[in-house]
Design brief:
heterotrimer, A alpha/beta (355), B mainly alpha (315), C alpha/beta (346), B: 315 residues, mainly alpha, 13 helices, flat, C: alpha/beta, 12 strands, 21% strand
């Protein structure tokens, strides 16, 4: 079982750090091209009825008025806990879910209401890497068939043999041996299966990839292999990523900007370092303080920001800020009106009445 | 037990690839072997009926009426299992009757199974109004008393093998539709099905390439069980006179004819009855084994049971 | 000196499957003293869960304990002699909570009914007293309005609360040892912090011993006194937490610490360990880590040693404390420390 060699010697880490120091501050790159433009996105799911006669309809507000952009060649990290709506946003952006409100523009074209054949054509430009490497590959198909399927379906190759050359190239790109094509998924480890999934996503040469928690199901020692692969591919092919995760530690290394979600709302959006160095929203602060650091000498001296109270009920959202029930610094204003997302510092957006 | 779970993820589908794999598997289960033997016997008998049967099943010989089987008094070797009230050889009728059972069974399973599977696929995959419409149709038809409906239709249209198959098929497709719809609904949620849709596969391709292969083993098990039920249903309808008509032979018909002579010539009822029972038993045993063999986790469990049993047995 | 509360000696567990014999646990030895938290760290296939299930007597066909001993306060729990002792100890002196609280709780019974069932069955308490005790238990695990919660069903509670209910059930009989199998893996990080703090608080208050199984080094760093690192069914290293993190001896531990991403780390790239854990059916006879180890030598094909060092450190490696991986760049380390100081006020 081979894996892609990762240079871990101190020299290359050294040069990475120097490179980073010399680079421009990672803020919103206004000059760069906007690939994905999401405005006021809302996704609501009907979940049944209530009331004695069943007259009141119950809906889950999974995503509420979320706006962000993704530039070409950039990675936007989308971070949130369960119920934050991050997976829903990922699926909605790919048009796998119906959009209740708002608009999604991809390369300038409005794709919000796209369906049928034009939606199928869109798949050549936007792809998805799944969370579960074990369940996202058809166990009855060989790797060759799995990776060749997008090519066959969109007419890039007419037969499996024609596709074989392209498949071999894709497998090489993701660091898998050429003979992997003849084997079945169960012969591979979790990390390798995820590479196969990435190879499949790359088959149509898309510009934009949604990575839905791509390393959550993998072992810790293997996570970095996949994340580094995604970074390398981004550099080589100019890809843009929407990297969905719940782990702020993993997301830090691959993202240029990070968006924090809470209960379906975007609460903070900033350049990567700004989120960690100077978090503005109380939820971001709470999240950062809750992550345990793998060093007892450090961890045991930390004081955690306590969060009492319950997460909000998605069926009956309260008026005002979603975080009010757990916020240590909530004021009356927070219970009355929902704070809008405002630019507090350059490139640093936050939805909180305190800023 | 994640270590075991890991090992289960390997090689579950390669069993299907080799006949030898199946052969090795069935050798472990004695009851399954019995079932397989009976089914193979049934199929061979039906296939080579004209070669095996010593006499023409419709040939009457009034001088040799109601002869008992060979091992009783007055039995002869010419008519091994005796003759009926018209002098027709019971054994030959038994052999030829298997053809009818098999033909009706296979015909109904293919017709009902095919139609039901397609309906289930459409309902499960497309959901929404298609699903609602098809399922209401299924619910309505299920509510009709099957046998009564069969009797009415056959009485109106006139009994024959063709109409028999049609009626049984009309009564039998709903169970396939429901099962397939349930399977499709759960398979649709699987990530690799979603992945196929994500790469841009059209619905037809997703259904045939990704969804359908998952349905093969539960569908096969259901079809085999339905086959057994159809054999019984055909026997019942023929017994009531609404199934196969003479001069064709059917086990049910033979039981009906022999009913009047039950105390004088017990062999007229017993042998066809036994044939029905053995066929249905064999089919059920085979189906029960197949359900276990085609599920990797069940196979693993039966393997574990055998291993533990072997270990406990003093060597 | 008193015998430790729980002692596992040379435990081996294997599973007979169609593919072959899976040696899930191989010659594992560890012990837990009264009042301490032992963390068992490992990735998938390390055998950590199976080892603890063996301790609780939960290993069923096709698995079996093929070697070794498990002792509770010096008396064995295995074999004919131990069987009765195991029945007394399990659930009573020693209890276990699992990863997914939703599937561990009966969805059709109320929370109160399930708690009361434990109390009535194990402690033979009269039902009225049991209900009162159940309410006390829920308060013990910091569940607000316990009276109301008793009448709710599991699906009405959040994930964190369900896990607290599980902990309450495990503590119902006032055990001396709590085994927690990845109790926070399925929970959000803010909820995880609450549960870990609860476990630490309960441990102090009730003088409980805890075995915490996890794959997350951050969790270990937060609550564990001692740590055992497992890889491919074997124990790689055991020691006190602070000491182990500061001076990891086994190459796997070193690699794992380097590969664990930190949110306070400014590096551009994550560090990985090449390769993947071995297949337990065909694992190499010697050290399981050899295929991925940078300092592998011929001696690693044979049986691993059991070396002891100060502060109770035990290592199973011929290359203990050798620097297997390149040192983290000094700049990076400095940057991490600077951030620590600023953010955490150290």
């Amino acid at each position: 079982m081979l894996s892609m060699p990762v240079s871990t010697d101190s020299e290359s880490i050294d040069s990475c750090l120097r490179e980073r120091a010399a680079a421009l501050p990672r803020g919103v790159q206004d000059a760069a091209q906007v690939l994905l433009d999401v405005r006021d996105l809302s996704v609501r799911f009907p979940v049944g009825r209530t009331g004695f006669w069943g007259q009141k309809r119950l809906t889950v507000h999974a995503v509420d008025d979320v706006s962000f952009v993704v530039h070409k060649g950039e990675t936007l990290g989308l971070v949130g806990e369960s119920g934050s709506g991050k997976t829903t946003i990922g699926r909605a952006v790919l048009r796998r879910l119906p959009v209740s409100n708002g608009s999604i523009r991809f390369r300038g074209n409005d794709i919000t209401q796209l369906r049928g054949e034009s939606l199928r054509k869109l798949r050549q430009h936007m792809q998805l890497v799944f969370q579960d490497p074990y369940a996202s590959l058809n166990p009855r198909m060989r790797v060759l068939d799995i990776v060749a399927e997008p090519l066959l379906v969109h007419g890039r190759a007419r037969t499996r043999d024609e596709a074989a050359a392209q498949v071999a190239d894709l497998l090489h790109r993701v660091g898998l041996p050429a003979d992997a094509a003849d084997r079945y998924p169960h012969a591979f480890s979790g990390g390798q299966r995820q590479r196969i999934g990435i190879a499949r996503a790359l088959a149509l040469s898309p510009e934009f990839i949604v990575a839905d928690e791509p390393v959550s199901a993998l072992d810790v020692s293997v996570r970095a292999q996949v994340v580094n692969l995604l970074q390398d591919l981004q550099r080589e092919l100019g890809l843009s990523y929407l990297f969905i995760a719940h782990d702020l530690a993993v997301v830090r290394h691959i993202s240029h900007r990070i968006a924090i979600l809470y209960a379906g709302k975007l609460v903070e959006l900033a350049g990567r370092d700004a989120i960690y160095d100077s978090p503005l929203h109380p939820y971001t602060e709470a999240l950062l303080s809750a992550i345990p650091v793998p060093d007892p000498a450090v961890q045991r001296c930390r004081r955690r920001i306590m969060n009492c109270g319950e997460p909000p009920d998605p069926l009956h959202p309260l008026p005002g800020c979603r975080f009010q029930t757990r916020c240590p610094v909530a004021q009356t204003q927070c219970r009355e009106a929902t704070p809008p997302l405002r630019e507090s510092a350059s490139g640093h957006w936050v939805a909180c009445w305190r800023h | 037990m994640s270590a075991v779970a890991e090992s289960l993820r390997g090689r579950p589908y390669e069993l299907f690839a080799s006949v030898r794999g199946w052969g090795r598997e069935i050798r472990h289960d004695k009851t399954a072997l019995v079932g397989l033997t009976l089914v193979v016997l049934l199929v061979l008998t039906a296939a080579f009926a004209s070669l095996i049967a010593p006499h023409d099943p419709a040939a009457q010989n009034l001088r040799a009426r109601l002869l008992p089987p060979v091992w009783l008094d007055k039995g002869t070797w010419t008519y091994l299992l005796g003759t009926d009230h018209l002098g027709r050889d019971v054994l030959s009728r038994l052999i030829h009757g298997s053809r009818v059972s098999l033909a009706v069974g296979a015909g109904v399973v293919l017709l009902a199974g095919g139609f039901g599977t397609v309906m289930g696929l459409l309902a499960g995959y497309f959901g929404g109004r298609t699903d609602a419409f098809i399922m209401r149709w299924v619910d309505t038809q299920v509510a009709f008393p099957g046998l009564l409906l069969a009797l009415i239709i056959l009485a109106v249209v006139g009994p024959s093998m063709g109409s028999l198959i049609a009626v049984l098929a009309i009564n039998g497709w709903m169970v396939y539709a429901r099962m397939v719809r349930g399977s499709v609904l759960s398979v649709r949620q699987l990530p690799y099905v979603e992945a196929a849709e994500m790469v841009g596969c059209r619905s037809l391709r997703v259904v045939f390439r990704h969804v359908l292969p998952n349905l093969v083993s539960p569908l096969l098990t259901l079809a085999i069980l339905e086959f057994a039920r159809i054999v019984l249903a055909e026997a019942a309808l023929s017994f009531l006179g609404l199934g196969v008509q003479p001069p064709a032979t059917s086990w049910g018909l033979d039981v009906a004819n022999g009913k009047e002579y039950m105390f004088r010539a017990w062999w007229l009822v017993t042998f066809p009855g036994a044939a029905i029972a053995m066929s249905v038993l064999g089919i059920n045993l085979l189906a029960s084994w197949l359900r276990i063999a085609s599920d990797p986790q069940e196979r693993e469990k039966s393997f574990a049971r055998r291993a533990v049993h072997q270990r406990r047995r003093p060597t | 000196m008193n015998a430790p509360l729980l002692e596992v000696e040379n435990l081996s567990v294997h599973f007979t499957t169609r593919r072959g014999v899976v040696r899930a646990v191989r010659e594992v030895s560890l012990h837990v003293e009264q009042g301490e938290t032992l963390g068992i760290v490992g990735e998938s296939g390390s055998g950590k869960s199976v080892a603890m299930q063996a301790v609780m007597g939960l290993i069923d066909a096709p698995g079996e304990i093929c070697n070794g001993d498990i002792r509770w306060r010096g008396r064995t729990l295995l074999g004919e002699a131990g069987r009765r002792r195991l029945q007394e100890v399990r659930g009573n002196r020693m209890s276990m909570i699992f990863q997914d609280p939703m599937t561990s709780l009966n969805p059709v019974m109320t929370v109160g009914a399930q708690l009361v069932e434990v109390l009535v069955r194990h402690l033979k308490m009269p039902p009225v007293q049991a209900w009162r005790r159940a309410e006390e238990l829920l308060a013990l695990v910091n569940i607000g309005a316990p009276g109301r919660r008793l009448r709710q069903h599991p699906h009405e509670l959040s994930g964190g609360m369900r896990q607290r209910v599980m902990i309450a059930m495990a503590l119902a009989c006032e055990p001396e040892l709590l085994i927690a199998d990845e109790p926070t893996t399925a929970l959000d990080v803010t909820v995880q912090a609450q549960i870990l703090e609860l476990i630490a608080e309960l441990q102090q208050r009730l003088h409980l011993s805890v075995i915490l199984i996890t794959h997350d080094l951050g969790v270990v760093a937060q609550v564990c006194h001692r740590v055992a690192v497992m890889y491919a069914g074997r124990i790689a290293e055991t020691g006190e937490a602070v000491d182990l993190f500061a001076r990891p001896g086994h190459p796997y531990t070193q690699g794992l610490l380097r590969a664990t991403p930190r949110h306070d780390d400014v590096a551009e790239r994550l560090i990985a360990i090449d390769g993947a854990p071995p297949d337990l059916v065909s694992a190499p006879p010697g050290c399981g880590f050899q295929q991925r180890c940078p300092v592998y030598g011929k001696e690693c094909d044979g049986p691993a040693p059991s070396l002891s060092y100060e502060h109770g450190r035990r290592l199973a490696c011929w290359h203990a404390f050798e620097r297997a991986w390149p040192e983290l760049v000094a700049e990076r380390k400095q940057a991490i420390h600077a951030l620590d100081a600023r953010i955490y006020g150290l």
